[in-house]
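Posting for a labmate who doesn't have an account.
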Amino acid sequence: MSVLKKIFTSANDREVKKLMKIADEIDAFEPSIQSLTDDELRGKTKEFKVRLAEGETLDELMPEAFAVVREAAVRTVDQRHFREQLIVGIVMHHGRIAEMKTGEGKTLVATLPGYLNALEGKGVHLITVNDYLARFHSEWMGKIYNFLGMTVGLVVPGVPVDIKRESYLADVTYGTNNEFGFDYLRDNMVIRKENRVQRALHYAMVDEVDSILIDEARTPLIISGAGEKSTDLYQKADQFVRRLTERIVTKEEEDTPSILRNVKSELNAEQPPGDYIRDEKLSTVTLTDDGVEKAERHFGVENLGDIENSELSHHINGALKARYLMSRDKDYIVKEGEVVIVDEFTGRLMVGRRYSNGLHQAIEAKENVSVRSESKTLATITLQNYFRMYKKLSGMTATAKTEENEFRSIYGMDVIVIPTHKPMIREDQNDAIFRSIKGKYDEAVEDIEECHQRGQPVLVGTVSVERSEHLSKLLKRKGIKHTVLNAKYHEQEAEIVAQAGKKGNVTIATNMAGRGTDIKLGGNPEFMARKFLIKEGYEGHLLEQAESHSYTQDEEILKARKEFN
C-alpha cells in the first residue's frame, strides 16, 4: 500500500508541491526585505498600491507582499510565518479553504491574504466565531497591519452606528458572522443610502469555516419588529396543560404514527388513560381524545377542532410543547427575567433570538416571567446566502476535508490539507465502540479518573449541553472536581478553556465551546494576566508587556500570574 502511495501521490499532495514553489519565491525575497528600515518597509504598502494601479495583479504582487508581511510580523509581534503558513496564505488568497491542524497558527496566517487583498482598498472582512476572539485578534494582529500603514476595524454588538461605519471603511475589519449578517439586514432596512454602515462585500476570510459555512449556514438571522400584543391566553393555556397527565405508549403502538395513536377506533376502543402523547424522537406532543375533551370543558367550547377555535388550539399546542418538550438549562436558560435560547449543538447563548409561532411566549408563561409581545419578521437571511454574496470567500479550520463536497456544491470552494510544520507527536487513537450508552460513560469516567490522579489535565468534548451535564453528575459522584462549560457560564468561555491545560484541571465542554482559544499545558498565564490588567484598569506598557509575554519583569503582572495560577 505504501509503494502505491509513493507512485500515485494524491491530488492534494500534488497541489501542495505546486504551492511550495510559490513559497520558494517568497523566501527568495526575504533577505532584501530584511535589510529595509522600518520606514522603507512601511513604504512598500504605497509602492504596491501604485503598482496595482499601473496594471500589476495581486497574484504578481503576492510573493513580495507576503515577504513584507512576514518581516512586519517579526518586528511587531515577534512571530515569523513558516513555510506551511505561507502555503495557507496562498490557498486563502485564491479563494479556497485550508485545513490545518490545531495549533498551527491560523491567526497569524490570516495577515498574509488580509494585507494583500486590502491593497485594493475595497475592504477585507475577517470572520471569527465569537466577540472575544474578534477583539483579541484585531488588537494582536492589528499591530502588523498598523505598522504597514493599514487601518483595522472591529465590529461587535452595541457599537454606535458612526463607529461601525468607520470600522467597515477600514482596510481590514474583524467581527463575528452574526454581526456582519445583522448589519447587512439593518442596512437593507434604512431609508437613506448614506445611513448604511457596510460597503460592497468584497473579500471575507472565515475562521472555523466548517462551523460557520456548514453547521450554522442554514440558521436564519432574523430582525423582528413589534407585532400584535400578547394575550393572557398564553398563561391560561399553560395553567391548563400543567394539570394534564401523559399517556404511556404501549408496545403495540410504538410502530404506529404518533398522529394516529390518539384516535379512538373500533380496533382501539379502550385506550390507556392519559391526556397527551409525547414523541421526543419526532419532537411532537399532541392531545389524546381525553385531552381534547378536557380542553373543551375547561375553555367552554363545543368543538376544539372548529375553525373559530384555531387560535385557542394553537396556544394549547404551544403550551404543550413548551412544558413537555422544551427543557430549562438544556434548550434555554432564564437569565435576568428573560428566556434565552441555547444552541443545541454548541451550548452558546443565542441572545436576541426568539422561537417563532408563539413558542417563546409559551415558554415565558411556563417560567412565569414577563410574556413579551409577539413579533413579526422584518428582515431575514441565512448565513449561507449572506456569505455567497462576497466577491471572494476563503476559510481555514482544522476540520474541513470531510465537508468538501458541500463546500464545492454550495460555495464553489475546494479544500487543501496542509502538512504540519513539524512531525506530529500527538497520538490519535482508534475509536472505541460500546454496546450501551452506560458502558461508554462508565469507561469515560474511568479514564478521566486515572488521568486526574496523575495530575494530567483533561478536556472532554460532548455533543450537547445535556450530555455535558450528565457526565458532570457522574464525575460528582466520584468526587472529581471539574468545570462544565455550557450556557450558564457563557461569558467565561474563553477563560475556562484557556485554563483547561492547567495541572489537574478537568474541563467538560460542548463540541464548539472555546474554538480558537489557545490552550497551553500548565495553563495560560498571559491570558489571565491580560484579563486581570484590563479589569484593574491598567493601560500602556503593562498591557503591552502582558500581550508580548514580557510579563516577568513587572510586579503587577507577577501579581496577576500569582492570583490566577
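Reply:
Got it, the C-alpha cells are right above this. Confidence is low (pLDDT under 50) at residues 538-557, 560-565.
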